[in-house]
Design brief:
mainly alpha, 16 helices, disordered C terminus, disordered N terminus
């Protein structure tokens, strides 16, 4: 969150008292909802999966999560980014990206352990053929280095590498935005289009193909979130017009009808126009335009419908708020729980009773874990308030990139 400076302390002190403004819980609530949705989608083959957002429009929780993350970066910096402190910002972004890398390694090797253990104990070798695991096990000499170098990603363990790459781009995005928001959007959009047309993406090392989520494509959505929020924090306003609202609503309705009615044959007709697939397709890897427009249209409607904004503004101790506040920890826990769910469902031949029970239990565990992290955070904050020196922060301190508060 942004850091507000209060009045200076006595002249003998070289620091000022810093007060953190009240946290806007709407982003936490949305992030919490996205985390739950991602978890449900990562346990495929159970009934709750049919109720998630991917069944009602072109985009899904991944797009929402990346846009929210971009908005959070813009919210953290506001108008405070100083091009002169670019190197410091780059160091912080790199540190955050490394944290995401470590989290990805935890989920990846836990996934391998769970599937190998399940296959061994329950005599279900077919588990080793799931979610890109076999390519590693049949060639450990190349497989382990490929995992460590992000040249091979286990299925359902592919969001954090993309997000880490986006964090490395934050200093450049902020620098371009400081020069001109239009420049930042133009450069980002050009990279998105170029990567989509020519299929430029990080390549896999063990199997053919690219990263499942191409950071060169997804950075456009991330940049839109950053630039839009920083524009608002500088006192600007997002465009509001009845025509724009009607267009956004119509596009969301069209997307709903398209997915519900399984009208994918019209996609073939669009492809016949000879335009690049990134403009007419529904590819997730390169974030095709229909998916991008859908999440932006939904966001526009949420912003411009006051009732939705009020609904999302929950108290600081609301379960969804707490869940979203500790997003990285919860995402890691949710991924591991989802992998447990996949193993159990496979062993039980995707039993239609076992699946929903696993999902409900997994969500309950995540909420319990979030409240544990919240209690820990409050205890640490309480100790900090009892220490006078920890209430004094040098005036040179600037807003950091978004991170889970503990």
């Amino acid at each position: 969150m942004a850091i507000a400076l209060e009045r200076p302390v006595s002249a003998r002190q070289s620091s000022v008292t810093v007060a953190t403004p009240k946290r806007d819980t709407r982003l936490d609530v949305l992030r919490g909802l996205a985390l739950i949705t991602i978890f449900i989608n990562h346990v495929p083959g159970q009934i709750f999966e049919n109720l998630t957002t991917k069944n009602f429009g072109f985009s899904d929780a991944a797009e929402a999560f990346v846009l929210i993350s971009g908005i959070a970066v813009g919210l953290a910096y506001g108008s405070r980014f100083d091009p002169g402190a670019w190197l410091q910002t780059a160091k912080k972004a790199t540190k955050r990206a490394f944290t995401l890398y470590l989290a990805h390694m935890i989920t990846t090797f836990m996934t391998l352990a769970l599937f190998i253990t399940g296959a061994s104990i329950f005599h279900r070798p077919g588990l080793l053929c799931e979610i890109n695991i076999l390519a590693v096990l049949t060639n450990l000499k190349a497989g382990i280095p490929s995992l460590l170098l992000l040249g091979h990603q286990i299925g359902y363990n592919n969001i954090l590498p993309m997000y880490g790459a986006l964090m490395l781009m934050v200093p450049i995005i902020l620098l371009l935005n400081a020069a001109s928001p239009l420049l930042a959007l133009s450069v980002s959009g050009a990279i998105w289009l170029f990567a989509g047309i020519y299929e430029i993406a990080p390549h896999n090392l063990l199997i053919e193909g690219y990263w499942f989520l191409n950071p060169l494509s997804w950075q456009f959505l991330f940049t839109i979130g950053i630039v839009g929020m920083m524009h608002v924090r500088r006192g600007g306003k997002l465009p509001r017009h009845p025509v724009l609202f009607a267009v956004a609503a119509a596009y969301v309705a069209l997307s709903f009808a398209w997915v519900i009615g399984q009208l994918w044959s019209f996609g073939i007709a669009l492809a016949s126009l000879g335009l690049p697939t990134v403009l007419t397709g529904f590819d997730k890897t390169f974030l095709s335009l229909p998916r991008l427009l859908h999440v932006l249209a939904l966001t526009y409607l949420v912003i411009n419908i006051p009732a939705i904004s009020r609904l999302l503004r929950r108290s600081a101790d609301n379960p969804l708020t707490v869940l979203g506040r500790h997003s990285l920890n919860i995402f890691v826990a949710g991924t591991i729980l989802a992998m447990v769910g996949q193993v159990v469902l496979y062993i039980n031949n995707h039993d239609q009773v076992v699946g929903p029970v696993l999902v409900v239990l997994g969500i309950a565990i995540q909420f319990a874990y979030a409240y544990h992290l919240e209690r820990k955070r409050k205890l640490e904050a309480g100790r900090g308030r009892r220490s006078p020196q920890r209430n004094l922060i040098p005036i040179a301190v600037r807003a950091d990139y978004p991170r889970d508060r503990r």
